[in-house]
Amino acid sequence: MSGKTLSLLLLLTLAPVSGLAQDVAKAIPAGSKVFINPMKDGFEKDLVTAFEAKKVPLEVVTEKEKADFEISGTSESKKAGVAKILIRGSIHSSEQASITVTNLKTGEAVWAYSVNKSNSAHGKRSTAEACAKHLKEKIDSKK
Amino acid sequence: MFHRISCLLLLLSAFAAGTFAQTTPSSTIPAASEQSSSKSDKPADMIDKAPPAELSKEKIPAGSKVYIAPLKGYESFLIAAIVKKGTPVVVVNNPEMADYEITGVSESHQAGWAKMLFLGSEQSNEQASIVMTNLKTGVAVWGYNVNKTNSYKGKQSSSEACAKHLKARIEGRE
Which structural domain, as residue segments, surrounds residue B47? Predict the structure, then answer.
């Protein structure tokens, strides 16, 4: 009887610990070193600027060997054509971007985000800042 | 007289043999009319194999490690969609660490002036198709394709559709 109770207690103790371990594995600690891979149309530069604008608590490094995390992704931009300007009355571009944060030690993707703006007020800057804002939320959540 | 009868019999047997030779291969190949004549030359053991759809019934365990092959940038949207939809897989950046691999293709067409003028839509036309393969067995365990004529969020919408259906497949709802 006591053996069964002990097993049950052990199980109840370990279950939340394993859940916590999973959360920790997916967490991005503030102050982590991150390397941003070159992206299409130089989106990595917009991303670095957006990190500064949104005060994302990460340190961007230029050498992958020194980094804890890696950011890779893609971005697409389409300027408003004559039809969009005349018919829809909009001069804003259509933007979409997607980024993935990978833990370089485990090789697992810990966070990813995609954004689509059909009338982007500031072009790539808007999509980059959206990515930065959500990444900051992820880091602040500590999960 | 005997010579004529024997000639007639020989002609009839030759005609019957020719007809049999033509009908025999088509009876062993399912839907032979859809296949080209070159495919009918395959050996019988290859033809009798179960269709690939039967192999896709393999269970995909939750928490499996998945590697997404480069898809001209679409892989990034796919990872974001997997995170957003809570698909129970772990995405890894190395195929050697993975249990499954996702490959595929995606296409995107922006709305032209005619679509904007006549349909009043500036949303793009998106289509994507992905296949998930078990790296140990080499068997395609799941596949899905999506076509959105008025994609509200471009590639994000099509990738989220893929992620949603992958989640349903893992959870046994599809």
Answer: 2-53
